[in-house]
Predict the 3D structure of the following.
Amino acid sequence: MSPLHVIVIGAGTGGMCLAHGLRRAGISVAVYERDRTRADGVHGYRVGIDPTGNQALGECLPRELFDTYTATCARTPAHFNVLTERRRTIASFRLPESDDPVHSERSVSRMTLRQVLLTGMEDVVHFGKAFTHYERGADGTVTAFFADGTSATGDLLVAADGTGSRVRRQYLPHAKIRDTGVIAVSAKVAVTPETRALLPDEAFDGISVTFAPRGQFCIWHVMEFKWDRDGAVKHGVGGNDAELIARWPGLLYDNTRDYINWGFSASARRFPPGVMDLRGEDLKRVVLDMTPNWHPDLRALFRAADPGSCFPIAIRTSEPVAPWKSTNVTLLGDAVHTMTPGRGVGANTALRDAMLLTRRLVAVRDGAASLLDAVAAYEAQMIPYGFARVADSLAQNGTNGDDPLHRPVVGRAVLAANRMFFRVTNGIPALRRKFVADLTAYRAADA
C-alpha cells in the first residue's frame, strides 16, 4: 500500500466510487459513514447513470463488481415521453439502444447501487460515524473527529457527505446552498398488472414527464429488474448476469423489486404549511388534493404508492463559489456542487469527481506530483465543470420557484408554448432526431 492515507466522509455514490478507485490503485483509504446499517437514510429511487458515470464506475470498480453493477441495473428506458395531466401523450421519442457497458444509459435503484458499492468494502467502511469537525496537524496530516468520541487521521480528508456537508461548512463557510422555492414529493408503486395498466404503453417502457397547469410537474420512472418479488432470477435471464445476481451478497440486504417511481413537484407556495413534516398517507393526500383535475389513472398511481416510500424534498442548489487555495481537505459531489434534478446529472458528476480525484492521487502514489499539487489539479477541473452542471440543472423549466412557469398568468402561456414545442418537435422527423441527438450528446459529453 502507498504511504498516502485518505479519509472519506460519507459512503454515498461518489465517496464509495472514490474508495474503490483508491483501493484498486493500492492507496490506503477509510470511509466514515453516519448511518449504522446499509439501509439507514437511503431511499431506493431511480438514478440515471450516463456514459460519464459508467466510465467512472468502470475505471474505479473491480471488473467483476462493475459487471455486477450492470447486471443489477433495471431495464433501459426505451422512450422519453411528454404527457399532459389528462394522460394524453404529446410526444414520445425513441431512445437509442446500446449494449456497450460504458457508452449507454442505465437505470439503477439508488439502494441497489449503494449495495453494489458497499460489496467487499467491509474493511474500509466504518458505520455509525457522525463527523463533527476536523483539525490539521503541524506534521501535515488532518484528523477527523466523530460524535462518538473517536477520531481518524490521514493525509487527505475528502468531503463526500452530501448537500448538508459538515466538512464544507467548516472548510468553505462562505459556500452557500439555497432553496430553489420548489418542493417535490416522491414515492414508489409496486408493479402489478393493475398498476401497469395505469400508464400508456410507451410510458411504461420509458421515462415520462408531465407538465401541468400552476407549474405542476411529475416525472415517472418504471424500474423492472432481473429478479422477481422473491429475489430469484427471472425466467429468461441467463448467462453471466444470472450467475452474478445469484451470488451477489447485496441482494440479502436490498428489498428493491419492480416499481413505478413518481416524483411530483410544484412551487413551494402551492403546498400547504408544514408539508415538509408530513409522511406517508398524509403526504399522498396532499398530492391528491393538489391534483383534482388530473386523469383518474394518474391519481390512482398517487393513491397506490407505498406510504413508507413517500417523502418530501425541498429542492436545493449550490451558489457558485470562486476557486479557493487548495489544502489537504477537498470535496466532491453534492458536498461542493449540489444541483437540482433538472438535467439528471448530479450522481454522474459526483462519479466524475471520484474518477478524476483517483487519477490525481495515483500521480501522488507514483511520485509524479505532490499531494497539494494533485488536489489543486483536481479542483481546477472540478470547480468549473461542477458549477456549469449546477447552472444547467437550474435552467431547466420548473426547477426554480421564480420560473415564469410558476406564475399565475404568464405560467399558462409558458405551459402552452412548452406543449407546442414538444408537439412540433415530435411531428417533424428531423426535429425528433435532433432532440434525441442533443439529449444523448449532453449526457455523454464528459465521457
Observations:
- Residues 38-42 have pLDDT under 50 and may be disordered.
- DSSP finds 15 helices and 17 strands in the chain.
- The first strand starts at residue 2 and ends at 9.
